């Protein structure tokens, strides 16, 4: 395990930098998944089907996969502070392209650029956190950083849905741009210099991929994320077609889902300590169960709100659980592990959006949710008690 002194370079924990990264996480999540809450008006405005418009999420996932594998190696000896700043600048440009997109092609180009930002940022994020705070504070710092996810989940989707109904979907994306610009300046001020310790190459990634415990963990992570986003990408069509909600009720339900995320963030920071194995199957188990609940009781707004709250609480714990697993089981090669984890997660989001869209357009929205449950069951079966996903000396 990397020592606390090595992690922080003999400096105090840089909590201001952690907060800056938390805001970046909030903006990334808001930017990446805003089409979920605006899927219907975006499809109408671009003269496309909802299934096709859902690919605005899959295209960002595709480019995120590529970027996550390449950024840590292509950046070479570049200072990680300036790489993170560059990724945030890409996010700002992406939002401008999407908001001003005259057609579907330009929209997809903007989303592809966002994918580069997503892949690059997340590939470095956990490794950077491990350098900003002492080892014992890493789970707490990860929970704080992913608090940005809770904020985005709480407010981005419902506010986006509501404002989109009032002013139009383009204005929602324009509204994000000044916040990202502020975050860009905050990065420059708060992040300490983060010189590369060593030049990354693909050999470190291949070394990790040869480890059976890491292979199993990566596949389990992919199945869990694939399950979550096969459902989440097409949540709005489900709520409109099955539950029969209007825009106001949709916004309230999305706000409930998001606010529940604060409970998940609090729980992750409080209970996620020591052995992470018992927690690994919780995301697939709880979120898959909530999806079954939506399928069975989707006709009831109250029941839907209940299951969405459960899903939202686990959603924010999800990332902390799996990134803690990574930090504990690949601490000797955190950037290589981060690249592989982000590639796996984004590939899962991509496939979830593609498969879910095909099931939605080809069969029904219920078929999309059933596909999500199937992936959750496979994840639970692979994880078991979690011990086989741990590095031998960590067991």
UniProtKB/TrEMBL annotation:
PROSITE patterns: MFS
InterPro entries: MFS, MFS_dom, MFS_Efflux_Transporters, MFS_trans_sf
Coiled-coil zones: none
Domain Major facilitator superfamily (MFS) profile, residue spans: 1-388
Major subcellular location class: membrane
Residues spanning the membrane: 12-34, 54-75, 82-106, 112-133, 145-167, 173-196, 217-235, 247-267, 279-299, 305-325, 337-359, 365-383
Keywords: Cell membrane, Membrane, Transmembrane, Transmembrane helix
Location in or out of the cell: Cell membrane
Membrane topology of the entry: Multi-pass membrane protein
Pfam families linked to this entry: MFS_1
Name listed for the protein in its UniProt record: MFS transporter
Lineage: Bacteria, Pseudomonadati, Pseudomonadota, Alphaproteobacteria, Hyphomicrobiales
């Amino acid at each position: 395990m990397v020592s606390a002194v090595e992690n922080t370079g003999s400096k105090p924990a840089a909590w201001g930098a952690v907060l800056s990264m938390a805001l970046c996480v909030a903006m990334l999540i808001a930017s990446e998944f805003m089409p979920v809450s605006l899927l219907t008006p975006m499809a109408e405005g671009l003269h496309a089907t909802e299934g096709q418009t859902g690919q605005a999420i899959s295209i960002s996932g595709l480019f995120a996969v590529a970027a996550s594998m390449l950024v840590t190696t292509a950046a070479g000896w570049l200072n990680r502070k300036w790489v993170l700043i560059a990724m945030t600048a890409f996010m700002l440009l992406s939002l401008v392209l999407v908001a001003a997109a005259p057609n579907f092609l330009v929209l997809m180009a903007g989303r592809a650029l966002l994918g580069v930002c997503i892949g690059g940022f997340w590939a470095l994020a956990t490794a950077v956190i491990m350098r900003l705070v002492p080892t014992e504070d890493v789970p707490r710092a990860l929970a704080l950083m992913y608090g940005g996810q809770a904020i985005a989940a709480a407010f981005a989707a419902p506010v986006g849905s509501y404002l989109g109904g009032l002013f139009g979907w383009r204005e929602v994306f324009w509204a994000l741009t000044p916040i990202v610009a502020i975050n860009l300046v905050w990065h420059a001020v708060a992040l300490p210099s983060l010189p590369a310790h060593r030049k990354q190459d693909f050999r470190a990634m291949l070394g990790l991929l040869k480890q059976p415990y890491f292979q199993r963990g990566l596949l389990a992570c992919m199945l869990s994320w694939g399950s979550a986003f096969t459902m989440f990408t097409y949540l709005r069509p489900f709520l409109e077609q099955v539950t029969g909600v209007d825009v106001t009720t949709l916004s309230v339900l999305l706000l409930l889902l998001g606010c529940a995320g604060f409970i998940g963030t609090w729980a992750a920071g409080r209970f996620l300590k020591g052995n992470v194995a018992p927690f690994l199957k919780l995301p697939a188990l709880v979120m898959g169960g909530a999806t079954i609940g939506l399928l069975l009781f989707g006709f009831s707004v109250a029941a839907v709100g209940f299951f969405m709250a459960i899903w939202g609480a686990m959603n924010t714990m999800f990332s902390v659980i799996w990134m803690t697993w990574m930090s504990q089981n690949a601490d000797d090669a955190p950037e290589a592990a981060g690249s592989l984890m982000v590639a796996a997660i984004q590939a899962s989001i991509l496939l979830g959006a593609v498969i879910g869209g095909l099931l939605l357009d080809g069969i029904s929205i219920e078929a999309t949710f059933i596909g999500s449950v199937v992936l959750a069951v496979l994840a639970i079966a692979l994880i078991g008690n979690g011990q086989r996903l741990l590095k031998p000396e960590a067991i």
